[in-house]
Amino acid sequence: MEWVETTGRTVDVAKEAALDQLGIVADEAEFEIVEEPRPGLFGRLRGEARVRARVRPATVRPKQDRRRSPKRDRPAAGGPAGEAEASSGGRRDTEADGGESRSSGARRRPAERTSPGPSPRATSSPPAQGDAMTADREADDRPAPSTEDVQRAAETFVNGLMTSFGLEAAVSSSVEEQEIEVRVDGGSLGLLIGPGGRTLLAIQDLARVSAQRRLGDHETRLRIDVAGYREKRRVALERFATTVAEQVRSTGVARALDPMPSADRKVIHDALSGMDGVSSRSEGEDPDRRIVVAPA
Question: Which of 203, 253, 225, 284 minimizes the C-alpha distance to 16?
């Protein structure tokens, strides 16, 4: 993913501007501080902060191989189980020779043990962690998956989701550099969108995590669209941004919009950046972060 560079009065302001430009939240970003404001007289700052940011590939904890090795379950020849087995064999020999065990009376049941040591199950050492650690190292050393691998994994997940929901839909995808878009087309798909597109965002996150668990970390960006919702949403937001800009220009009063997800804020910022007489900034913390449109 390419880096973006932003400036601001402070480092935090520059970072927030970068998040709005990328359309992501702070946990999904990686920052580099290029320049910090210099201290001036009376505690004031001179100059601007400059930062670079990009989408950070999420780190997925590799699966651990929890299967018990057959060798691990088999007691060692010299261990407690072997001693118990040898002890049992010695008892059988004694009984055959008419020794103490036979003269003691009734024959012992197979489930009873005469060995003073504990049972093999109780004394066997816990499973070693070597196999799990080896699996972790092998998972960490896996080569980065290609964009096509992530694309296929995302399509597989979405197709399985459609089957689980019992929906008839056509799933397709396209790739542009490291951007992957999976499209779902069909009728009666409102269930997959949800109020304000929140269900769609959740499905998108699940598809990304599923691909990462199958393939490991990757730097591709995955986007899912259902029934053309994202394009319709973008057009509606741009129209809304134009209306708000006209109101702010005519009244000269700044207006704070309702909280929005990062992707919607990016659309608003992009639309207002090409309009004269207004400026925009984001305030607050997710999920209550909102855009403020002010006269320029």
Answer: 284
